[in-house]
């Protein structure tokens, strides 16, 4: 007979994982679904202030590797509400998700902005709720920038990496994405485009408009 502490251990472990990593493992009909959340700003090589909501990419990498290797996990649901963040960290996670054999579905809630766009399209099927938005804008940086041709060439190469990934994993063409990235009439004091749920689907960026139930139904059908 299990004592009281033993019976509470799985639940406390689950709660601890939700609080520390924003992830949980469900088990419906014998099919384990790993739910992974990407919220706030994606933190990369530099630490963000404690007052700022962030997702640490070094936390998500082992969760995704576990989902790929653990036979008890049949699918992964990636839930996004992010303002973007570190480009290399976001692309690293996107490439990791895109390279998985385990069925993956993404769901954009609230926003999937900036480097959140590659993350949204990296799954095998993507969904967005009608009220959510996705912001596409050129690569930007903060801090010291050398006013040299090499600096601008470097930014251009980063931009092309993002465009190539997004267009390879969605129905949007590279030409159309560049047009949306460099619009000047839509965002005040900036350039880029803001797409709501239905617009993102019409542009071929996201596969379907839908919420949690639709995303889960799709994931279960892929398992």
Helix and strand topology:
Elements: H1 4-21, E1 23-28, E2 31-43, E3 54-56, H2 57-69, E4 73-85, H3 87-98, E5 104-112, H4 116-121, E6 125-128, E7 133-136, H5 149-168, H6 174-181, E8 193-196, H7 197-202, E9 208-209, H8 212-222
Parallel strand pairs: 2-3, 2-4, 4-5, 5-6, 6-9
Antiparallel strand pairs: 1-2, 7-8
What's the short version?
Helix content is 42%, strand content 26%.
Describe this structure in words.
With 223 residues, this protein is an alpha/beta fold. Helices cover 42% and strands 26% of the residues. It is built from 8 helices and 9 strands. The protein has helices spanning 4-21, 57-69, 87-98, 116-121, 149-168, 174-181, 197-202, 212-222; strands at 23-28, 31-43, 54-56, 73-85, 104-112, 125-128, 133-136, 193-196, 208-209. Strands 1, 2, 3, 4, 5, 6 and 9 form a 7-stranded mixed sheet that branches. A two-stranded antiparallel sheet has the order 7-8. The protein starts with a helix and ends with a helix.
